[in-house]
Amino acid sequence: MLNFELYNPTQYVFGKGQTQKLANLVPKEAKILLAYGGGSIFKNGVYEQVKAALTGFEIIEFGGIEPNPRFETLMKAVEIIRAEKITFILAVGGGSVIDGVKFISGAVNYQGNPIEILKKKVLFTDVTKVIPFGTVLTLPATGSEMNSGAVVTIEATQEKLTLGGSALFPKFSVCDPSVIASLPKRQIQNGVVDAFTHVMEQYLTYPHDALLQDRLAESILQTLVEIGPNVVENPTDYKLASNYMWCATMALNGLIQKGVPTDWATHMIGHELTALYEIDHARTLAIIGPNLYRVLFETKKEKLAQYGERVWNITGNSVEDKAEKAIESTVEFFHQMGMKTKLSENTTDYENTADFIVNRFEERGWKALGEKQNVTLEKVKAIVEMSY
Known about the structure:
By secondary structure, this protein is α/β, with parallel strands linked by helices. A hairpin with a 4-residue loop joins strand 6 (150-154) and strand 7. Helix 11 crosses helix 15. Helices cover 48% and strands 10% of the residues.
């Protein structure tokens, strides 16, 4: 097992009716920026619950944070916080709102051009230099409610880039599974596939000695396979909703990545598809993931075979046979979850996508991705072209 440090200070507050605890979670005398997205919280009752729980607090609202939050939009919130001397941010929404708030938290006191936070992947490690924040989760998917990473889009250059650091963990996250009852099917489909792929990025590498981590990862995958299609059709079923929400958190709260090699090339390529074509994040992962496994088959086949045996109950005469069947089972699951797994099924203008992404990666110096740093630019090109 690889050396690791485990640090996660987020207070995770899970279950029905937990929003009412906000008054005890937010610091007394806090001046709050209430950040949210496109307004769904007004339709599903979450806004009223939050406002009722925070009676007596001074609140300034900031709405309109986009899916794939825009740097340009988030900077408007940064200016409000500076002008109004806000002391606490409450993110009410899904991963995009929470990611946006992480950027806002770090950018307020950043010395320099805030765009450097994204361009240079700045890590925030001093909690005294960021604005503290909490979250009320409305869409399980990204795990952002219990981790310190974020992804933000720069609209001007069509780039989707990351930031993070130990200072950007939420102080608390209120996670009530009943909120998914009002979500569109597409968003629940996306959430399940996003969580599934988060696990795969940390699990589907090569055999190693972290036996428990493998079992933890496989248990999340098995649970998502079991409940995924059903929770889309029955979002009011609390058993399904609660297990879905906890799986999404566990997939990316840092626990299963400790002591193991991790990949993340699927995400890095997928982010470019979202930035270029506005394809939903989870759907880009479903497009790229299986083809990455095919192009990297020789280095991933042992773990693919293990995944096939343990998650899909696949038997076969050889490692190669089980590995190939595992990829096909994954694609079938994505289809079952409503994913269209070819780029041409998601956008019409895709012919030069591979060259564009390769050129962009080359400009950034991203020439060796993946757990073995063997995802070269040539392989990136092959993966994207195979995904057409």
